[in-house]
Design goal:
The protein has 3 domains: 2-54, Structural Genomics Hypothetical 15.5 Kd Protein In mrcA-pckA Intergenic Region, Chain A (Roll), CATH 3.10.290.10; 62-123 and 211-235, Alpha-Beta Plaits; 128-208, Alpha-L RNA-binding motif (Alpha-Beta Plaits). It is built from 6 helices and 17 strands. It has helices at residues 4-10, 16-24, 114-121, 141-149, 188-195, 226-235, and strands at 2-3, 28-30, 33-34, 41-42, 48-50, 53-54, 62-67, 95-96, 105-111, 129-136, 152-153, 156-157, 162-169, 174-181, 200-208, 211-212, 221-223. Strands 7, 8, 9, 10, 13, 14, 15, 16 and 17 form a 9-stranded mixed sheet that branches. Strands 3-2-5-6 form a 4-stranded antiparallel sheet, with no helix packed on it. The chain has a two-stranded antiparallel sheet with strand order 1-4. Strand 8 (95-96) and strand 9 form a beta hairpin. Helix 1 packs across helix 2.
């Protein structure tokens, strides 16, 4: 027996937290009965429906994608734009772990494993995410110090970060900065640079946890190895 939200997550419906929302909204039925109790448990013999569509447990899959710009970080898009899921050939219902902006490229993890998704996106886990940013203007070491110590965004100070100036282009008045954060607030990297008066012109995520873009070109993806999956679970213990 397992909790209904975990079963839904294992079936690739959504992350465990999103599955809980579906249950509370009355969209889930078990053996013909609508269930709104988050403590409700099911087994493999039960018939589980979401919006009257039967849920089947899936084989767990894990992918690393080098997300291109102008790609939606979602499963579906109402404007029919290309989503990150469209780029991966699989019959399973995978979804992205976290988000990257439409105009941001770089490393993205996708899976149908709701348990690992829940752990990786939980604020308490402090998963390291490293970005390479091209910004307008000349970034100073005083700016770097502000980024690292934490700045106020919407009245809440960001956690300590690591920032490094990688290149200064004085002729074109541009800077290239590597920034590592452990949070996932909306547009956080862009807002952090905006706070120190530097507009982000181009942004790429180059590292997520211990994964990098090594051996991946833009738009390419690969499956995680069994060893990497085990390593990922150990990483979020």
């Amino acid at each position: 027996m397992e909790r209904l939200q975990k079963y839904l997550s294992a079936g690739g419906v959504a992350s465990r937290r999103k599955s809980e929302e579906l249950i509370l909204q009355g969209k889930v039925k078990v053996n013909g009965k609508t269930i709104t109790d988050l403590g409700f448990k099911v087994n493999d013999k039960d018939e589980v429906l979401v919006d009257n569509v039967k849920v089947f447990k899936q084989e767990k899959e894990y992918y690393l994608l080098y997300k291109p710009e102008k790609t939606i970080c979602s499963v579906h898009d109402e404007k029919n734009r290309t989503t990150v899921v469209d780029l991966i050939e699989t019959k399973e219902k995978i979804f992205p772990v976290g988000r990257l902006d439409y105009d941001t490229s770089g490393l993205l993890l996708l899976t149908n494993d709701g348990e690992i998704t829940n752990k990786l996106t939980h604020p308490s886990k402090d998963i390291e995410k490293t970005y390479y940013a091209k910004v307008d203007g000349i970034v100073t070491y005083e700016d770097i110090n502000k980024l690292e110590k934490g700045i106020l965004l919407d009245g809440v100070k960001t956690k300590k970060a690591t920032a490094k100036i990688r290149k200064i282009d004085k002729r074109n008045n541009k800077s290239y900065v590597e920034l590592t954060i452990t949070e996932g607030r909306n547009h956080q990297v862009k807002n952090m640079f905006a706070y120190i008066n530097h507009k982000v012109l181009k942004l790429k995520r180059i590292k997520y946890a211990f994964f990098t873009l090594e051996n991946l070109s833009i738009g390419e993806y690969r499956k995680l190895t069994i060893k990497e999956v085990k390593q990922l679970y150990n990483y979020v213990k």
